[in-house]
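Many introductory courses stop at the sequence. We go one step further.
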Amino acid sequence: MAIDARNEALRNQSRYLTNLSRQQTSRGDAMTGLLLALEALPSTDDPDRPYMVQAESALYGALSNLREIAVLSGHRAAVTDVRWGRNSKTLVTASRDGTARIWNVSEPGNVVVLAGHDGGVRAVAISPGGTRVVTASRDNTVILWDAVSGDLVARLRSHGGDVLHATFSPDGRRFVTTSRDRTARLWAAADGREIAALQGHRGPVTFAAFDPTGAYLATASWDRTIRLWNPKDGAPAGVLEGHEDRVLYLAFDETGRYLVTAAEDNTARIWDVASDTPPTVLSGHSDAVLHAAFKPSGSQVATASADGTARLWDVASGEELIVLRGHEAAVLRSQYDAIGERLATVSADGTARIWNAENGSLEGVLGGREGPILATAFSPDGTRLATASEDATARIWSATSAVATVTLRHSGPVVYAEFDPRSERVVTASVDGTGRIWDADTGAVLAELRGHQGQLRHAEFSPDGTLVITSSEDRTARLWDAASGKQVAVLTGHTGLLPWAAFSPDGRRAIPHPATGRHGSGRFQMGPRSPYCRVMKLG
């Protein structure tokens, strides 16, 4: 009877994990869906729960939807801008931490860090040939970098306000920057020499773009106008007026003849820069239009708006073709794929969505409001679930409603969370080098476990709840008094990192385990990397 009851409880747990897996996969977070499905399945070498076909189905569903290629981590604050190199292997990111980083996507560990600003980096650009990177910062400066070595080529101090945007010309010989100082400036990419100060706007200049043919440079401003310039010497070439509020964004089509602009007057406009004809007004959004993009063929424009929708428009007539609904916050950006069959939208709700550009059907949702879930654990009484997440939080959820009741915050990704035997406390382990013991009802910190010299990988309570054991990349495990948080013992002797440690069932011994590839609660083992573990006697 006891075994039957245990197995039924484990089946209920697996059903819940399977449902969570499917929810995460449907939201676009297939990696979390995969990990949750693995938790719901028995271990192959030591089955610890009944097999359920639904869990395996959820696993294959997550695998088939897995789109994540790499997680690029290293910035210490929000990432503010990202740009692809032309070869699609190089990615450049800008961050509020004052740095930009050049990444090789196929080798995420191969990173060039560009550090030199005294304020957050707002924008970044990479030259078409991939040899130069420009960063624009809140510190009023622009820095030109060698993209291969990461060396600083020139520090440009001409702007008198925050630098908001930077972009290179199609031939890579020049770049332009825009600023709150009401100017844009044209520079030589080889050495950072200033070619011209583009003056005339009466408000901050928010954006600039070169047309693909090299005939025009356009700038957008809060003064409600767009100005055209000669991209070689910065000479004025025209002023486009008509918007009734700040102009936030602009982009040329592939021919360079047509320009689309997005503004806070809830409209986008399409301009023929080669003639004096009035613009085509795209009207239908109920809030500011934040971004607009031409389809590669030039026949269609996609707009993204603070009203939470994206919309597709016919360029020739200005007719609204399709409204894309589903985001739960402002849509920040829209972008067609190379052949114009699909459209990607990015939103302040923390997700990106992929749409069919012909019929507007939703093809996928990427990401979510929380970071990827790294570990899960049920409370012993079965009423709650704890999750550890890459977004530097652990969360306690109701097991019946899947509603988060408490959020527990670290300063780095949380890799493990577990309840005490009475379901009253939770212990967490974090990349920030600390463990913490929390009140499971209120989220109050009861004790902070400090002493490790590296990232924590695991933490758990002893069977009687009086001790906690933690394991770390510093090659030690440590014992702590669970009531006071004081360190009781340091367990040394391993020569490699310790991703996992556990108490014996009677609580009298601890087993620090070398790198095994375990995930979550330790049920999924990918194969040992060390031929031994150490057993430590307590007391």
